[in-house]
Write a sequence for this structure.
């Protein structure tokens, strides 16, 4: 049984995609039904399909977009009935505002007021009912794929932790089979026995998948038993791969150099580089042109707020570990630090204007000039300062591999993890960066840019 499907080089639970498609159809049908009832039944007019379908499609698209920006497609958490109802109403309110703006520009797309109000009533009824059913499905263990985990050390513990924390994985961990000392496992799942008992345990606890999370496979892996289970139809999956599909990051603690050599990913073709470069040039030119008015306002505000230049220049490490000068709007007082330090929450070095432009992420607009020059890309790992790169390379394995591609203004790590200010945070962000490099594609970049727009609007993670 396949639980996840790969879309844009990301793994999504199939049932989440089914949920999204079903909800889209329900919203479309709600508007369509309201149109038929008003036009055909109440007014007894001729129903012209080609007049109605574009209007219905527009409302459906805007509604889905609003639900997305209200985190209603973030399946990681299961909302209570009250919160779900409030979020849904907020989303539909934004839908009305967006449609009002669109109708002002394109009045030919306006739908009858009575149709729209009736459609909203149907959307609330159908969507709320469907989401309550789906929330129940997320909570029910019987709708999940049953798995066993071989291993009982920190590797297995991380897999259990990530699976339990994510309500939408579609996996139900029946238990673990430990190694030499399974009783030392402190996870929240039962210990069913040792690895050598895999056959009787798999028979006693029927499962669809067995995940290998052994600290050391040599001498501990029950090869013949796993082969027999494989031939019985069980899915045998390596723990590193399972963790990667589950979380969208790579577990660097368990990596060996052979992983990079033999993995199906980490292929950066010349064609993909050229297309990515063309996209970067187009976006940076458009972005710099459109942002000129706001840049002028920011420049004046910075000069009025504190002494110093408008632009802040700092050396960063780019592709191939080559240094380059990064540009930002200055958000700190001049000579604010004696030695390199990570930014902190409520950093006293930040100016009043700097606090605002950092929160809105518009201090990074000048980096589009770095993108235009070819030193950066719109999407990629964030460039670090040479001091931190040197320090982190000494402490974190495979840290240099993040410099295999151009650094980016935004990236997979930036949208999936909070602002980092420690070595531990750097390790977590590297896991996401390596996942991005392994799965690089233009569609993946576009998905990241789309998600970044939500992060910017909700102002998450900035300091």
């Amino acid at each position: 049984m396949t639980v996840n499907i790969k879309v844009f080089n990301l793994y999504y639970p199939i049932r989440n995609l089914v949920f999204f498609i079903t909800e889209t159809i329900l919203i479309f049908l709600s508007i369509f039904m309201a149109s038929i009832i008003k036009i055909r039944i109440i007014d007894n007019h001729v129903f012209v399909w080609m007049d109605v379908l574009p209007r219905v499609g527009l409302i459906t698209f805007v509604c889905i977009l609003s639900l997305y920006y209200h985190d209603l497609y973030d399946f990681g958490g299961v909302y209570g009935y009250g919160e779900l109802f409030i979020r849904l109403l907020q989303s539909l309110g934004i839908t009305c505002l967006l449609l009002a703006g669109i109708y002002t520009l394109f009045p030919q797309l306006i739908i009858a007021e009575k149709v729209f109000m009736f459609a909203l009533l149907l959307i609330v009824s159908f969507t709320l009912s469907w989401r309550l059913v789906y929330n129940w499905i997320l909570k029910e263990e019987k709708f999940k794929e049953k798995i066993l985990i071989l291993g009982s050390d920190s590797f297995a513990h991380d897999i259990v932790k990530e699976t339990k924390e994510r309500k939408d994985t579609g996996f139900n961990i029946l238990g673990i089979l430990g190694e030499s000392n399974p009783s030392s496992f402190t996870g929240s799942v039962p210990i069913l026995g040792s690895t050598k008992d895999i056959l009787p345990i798999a028979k006693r606890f029927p499962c669809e998948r067995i995940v290998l999370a052994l600290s050391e496979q040599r001498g501990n892996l029950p090869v013949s038993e796993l082969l027999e289970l494989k031939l019985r139809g069980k899915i045998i999956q390596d723990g590193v791969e399972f963790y990667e599909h589950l979380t969208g990051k790579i577990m660097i603690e368990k990596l060996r150099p052979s992983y990079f050599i033999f993995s199906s990913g980490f292929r950066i073709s010349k064609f993909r580089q050229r297309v990515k470069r063309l996209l970067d040039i187009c976006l940076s030119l458009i972005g710099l042109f459109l942002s000129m008015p706001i840049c002028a306002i920011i420049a004046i505000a910075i000069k009025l707020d504190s002494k110093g230049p408008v632009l802040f220049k700092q050396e960063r490490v780019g592709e191939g570990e080559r240094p380059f000068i990064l540009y930002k709007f200055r958000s700190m007082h001049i000579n604010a630090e004696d030695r390199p330090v990570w930014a902190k929450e409520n950093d006293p070095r930040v100016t009043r204007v700097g606090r605002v432009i950092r929160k809105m992420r518009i201090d990074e607009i000048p980096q589009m000039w770095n993108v235009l020059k070819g030193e950066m890309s719109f999407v990629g790992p964030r460039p670090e300062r040479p001091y931190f790169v040197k320090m982190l390379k000494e402490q974190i394995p495979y840290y240099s591999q993040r410099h295999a591609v151009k650094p980016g203004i935004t990236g997979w790590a930036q949208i999936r993890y909070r602002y980092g200010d420690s070595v531990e945070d750097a390790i977590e962000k590297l896991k996401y960066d390596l996942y991005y490099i392994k799965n690089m594609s233009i569609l993946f970049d576009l998905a990241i840019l789309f998600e970044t727009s939500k992060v910017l609007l909700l102002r998450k993670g900035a300091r």
Notes: The chain has 17 helices and eleven strands.
